[in-house]
Amino acid sequence: GERAPAGGATITCDGRVPGATLELTHWTDNETPDDLYADTSTECALRLARIRRVGGTAYADHDDALVINNHFDTDGVLSAYACLHPEAALRHASLLADGAAAGDFGEWSSDAGVRLDAAIEAIGGAHGGDPAAYDAALAALPALLASLEADSADAADEEAPWRDGWRAALAGWQALASGDASLSRAGAIAVLREPSPKEEAESSEPLPGAGKRSPGEFPRLPAVALHRGLTQLLGAPFGIRRVLRATDGGARGWRYEYETPGHGWVKRLVTREPVAAPEGGALAESLTALGGVGTWRKGGGGGLISLCASDGWVDAPPDAVCEALLACDEAAQEYVVRPGSCPAQCGAVESWVES
């Protein structure tokens, strides 16, 4: 329904449902209490579980609350699971957080987290609507979590529900590691040169999961592979405020998509740095008016993180487009990793800190 049912305690997980008595969501304009708030809705739900494990009166009126949501995705499923089965969720808290970050932010925090997100997305795709998908995913989670926490996860890849998504993630990472795709940096912009169809065809491991495409269409490197590349190849994703995806079409020129990092759509953040972003339509107009980099339009293939994209093929190479973007997008000019803002596991080193 469009509103939470009246007459009792209700928790809305991930999506914002009007009338709910408690929000556990990171969506824009959320009203999640500060002591429960975290960067993903799943982590919000885990915070509630920890508070209730201690006991006391805080949120005790929601111990038997009705748990609701208005859409199906990994963060929604995992936050609902944490509310419905808090003790079980706390036993797998790190894995749940990694899965939610993979789903909502495209982050490769752990192999198991990427697999978990891929499995939930596959379950959702196999069912004809959100209620049926939720039933199937929540029923499958205990076995999924146990398998992913065990050492046997690699051996189960061939038959596991995460198979196709995991293969796509691995192939995307291989494209970066082998040089079929590449990453560089200009200011606070990470420049991703996407693998082209020619490179894909010649590779010993073609990109699975890209799906069939019509002539002229190009695959997007999976977001989790991009995040792993930012972490392991560029040194750290922290300080990167934009991503320019560049596809080399040979004689046709280049196609571009400009977006924020995966968490850039979330306005209220705790452990990640907020990303100020211009309005995509205005930025596209500025780039077009600047001249020399073709015509640009609002949007792109990245969903909530998309800012703008070239309108077809353009002659300008990536360095010229970066120069134009740095002139039009002030927040992309400065690359700063603030002390204490980069967790140890990101792999950043002192030499990456610029003032």
Short description, anyone?
This protein is of the alpha/beta class and 355 residues long. Helices cover 37% and strands 12% of the residues. The strands form two sheets. It has a six-stranded mixed sheet, with helices on both faces. The chain has a three-stranded parallel sheet with strand order 2-1-3.
Number of discrete helical segments: 11
Shape summary: globular
- From the N-terminal CA to the C-terminal CA, the straight-line distance is 50 Å
Q: Major beta sheet, specifics?
A: 6 strands, mixed
Write a structural description:
With 355 residues, the protein is an alpha/beta fold. Helix content is 37%, strand content 12%. The chain is built from eleven helices and nine strands. The protein has a six-stranded mixed beta sheet, sandwiched between helices. Strands 2-1-3 form a three-stranded parallel beta sheet. It is globular. Mean pLDDT is 87; it is low at 199-216 and 337-355.
What is the strand and helix layout of this fold?
Layout: E1 10-13, E2 22-24, H1 41-54, E3 66-68, H2 74-84, H3 86-91, H4 93-105, H5 111-125, H6 130-149, H7 163-178, E4 182-186, E5 189-193, H8 197-202, H9 223-232, E6 242-248, E7 254-259, H10 280-290, E8 296-298, E9 306-310, H11 318-328
Parallel strand pairs: 1-2, 1-3, 5-6
Antiparallel strand pairs: 4-5, 6-7, 7-9, 8-9
